[in-house]
Design brief:
The structure is a single chain. This protein is mainly beta. The chain has two domains: about 55 residues, no CATH class; about 90 residues, RlpA-like domain (Barwin-like endoglucanases). It contains two helices and eleven strands; from the N terminus they run ββββββαββββαβ. The two termini are about 25 Å apart.
Length: about 160
């Protein structure tokens, strides 16, 4: 049985594995390696210097491809210009993401090369693997264009 401890730092994290023989190994991984260390069993954390075992119930994030485009809070794009998303939150650059309805509001999506975004908005054309990334200006949005990017659901 394996126990994993990890500390996330942007796209790099450290994993300590303690196996049944109490042998401990520590290794650094980047987000691309995340699916390769899953190895079954329990996830652990450290509290007050002690390992705390906890059943790991969430699936290990698997990478998938999104077809990303960008949008702004301009009235000609959204029909309003108050910057309030479908979830009721105000748009924030480098955070707000319009996701298909199959993703609940609040779901965190890590997009390679861009960072972690939060599903806070919807859109009529946002279906399947199409996601819309909020950007502050139309210049940024047009420069971004449309890209196929690798992403991971973080929770």
């Amino acid at each position: 049985m394996r126990y994993l401890v990890f500390i996330a730092i942007i796209s790099i994290f450290t994993v300590t594995v303690v196996n049944a023989e109490n042998t401990t190994t520590t290794q650094q991984f980047n987000i691309n390696d995340y699916t390769n260390i899953a190895g079954g069993g329990l996830m652990c954390g450290i509290a007050n210097g002690e390992y705390k075992k906890a059943q790991y119930t969430e699936p290990i994030p698997e990478k998938f491809t999104i077809n990303a485009s960008a949008y702004t809070a301009a009235a000609d794009e959204c029909g309003k210009s108050d910057g309030i998303t479908a979830s009721g939150n105000k748009v924030i650059p480098n955070r707000t993401l319009a996701c298909p309805r199959s993703y609940e509001f609040g779901t965190k999506i890590y997009i390679e090369g861009m960072g972690t975004y939060v599903c806070e908005d919807r859109g009529g054309a946002i279906k399947g693997n199409h996601f819309d990334i909020y950007m502050k200006t139309k210049t940024e949005a047009f420069a971004f264009g449309r890209k196929n990017l690798t992403a991971y659901v973080l929770g």
